[in-house]
Amino acid sequence: MASIIPFSQSQPLFKKPQQAILKKPQGQLFLSLPISQKPQQAVLKKPQGQLFLSLPISQKKARMVVVSATSTAAEKPQKRYPGEAKGFVEEMRFVAMKLHTRDQAKEGEKEPQGQPVAKWNPTIEGYLKFLVDSKLVYDTLERIVEKAAYPDYAEFRNTGLERSESLGKDLEWFKEQGHVIPEPSLPGVSYAQYLQELSEKDPQAFLCHFYNTYFAHTAGGRMIGRKVAEEILNGKELEFYKWDGDLAQLLQNVREKLNGVAESWTREEKNHCLEETEKSFKFSGDILRLILS
């Protein structure tokens, strides 16, 4: 806001132009303007991106104009997070990709642990453990969004990405082939319990797990499914890896919902969500490794 400080009416004016200068209080910018014998126009040139004032100075009532303003140019630029310009889901994707190995994704930074998927030797028993524990996790996720302890969860009902029903059909098929369906094991039980507890107190962290579980399955999960099918199922494609409708559009719809929910979050809440990514990878990795058990 500009402020104007008048000189005393009896104060003489110099014949030669002089500079009237005030000390700079903290947090303000000041401009000192020359006062001449004849009325003049004091013109401030317009720096790029700023407004300017043109103020007359009369001979009888000489005034010194003090202009204070916030200088955007002087402010430090706000930190930009990778992917932020495209929406929060892109930030989540960026963080998730860095937790992959180089052979899994070009953005990957993690060192490989164990054999790559191409060299896996899966077993029916191990694969059934994986499917059973996966179903427990998806059952839990779908129940959480259905009950919606936080209103935002309701946005993710009936997205078309749900996997619980499909997994139920696959397990029934295995049963019909004469295989014994195991009970859920520790990795699945631990993750389901963690998700339930997290969803009741920490929506940002919970939605990190929601995103990574569903989106990872549509990418790396399908690749693993094809590999297992070739090795032990004579190429049969399970319902777990099928979706009704255009998968790309289903994913886009959920991206938009996640971006919309995240718009109301503070930067700290967004960072908290991103920090949960590594824990999501650990839980899902423990379940994935059941395939080799």
Keyword list:
293 residues; mainly alpha; Heme Oxygenase, Chain A; 2 domains; two-stranded antiparallel sheet; 8 helices; 8% strand; globular
Describe the structure.
The protein is mainly alpha-helical and 293 residues long. It has two domains: 1-75, no CATH class; 84-292, Heme oxygenase-like (Heme Oxygenase, Chain A), CATH 1.20.910. The protein is 44% helix and 8% strand. It has a two-stranded antiparallel ribbon with strand order 1-6. The protein has a two-stranded antiparallel sheet with strand order 2-3. The longest helix is centred in the C-terminal third of the chain and has 30 residues, at 203-232. The N and C termini lie far apart (70 Å). Mean pLDDT is 81; it is low at 1-17, 29-47, 50-55 and 57-74.
When the domains are counted, the total is: 2
Poorly predicted regions are 1-17, 29-47, 50-55, 57-74
Helical/strand content category: mainly alpha
Give the DSSP E fraction (strand runs of 2 or more residues).
5-15%
- Find the CATH topology of the largest domain: Heme Oxygenase, Chain A
Q: Please describe the biggest sheet, giving its number of strands, its sense, and whether it closes into a barrel.
A: 2 strands, antiparallel
Calculate the mean pLDDT score and round it: 81
Strand-and-helix sequence, N→C? EEEEEEHHHHHHHH
Our count of helices gives 8
Strand element count: 6
Separation of the first and last Cα atoms? 70 Å
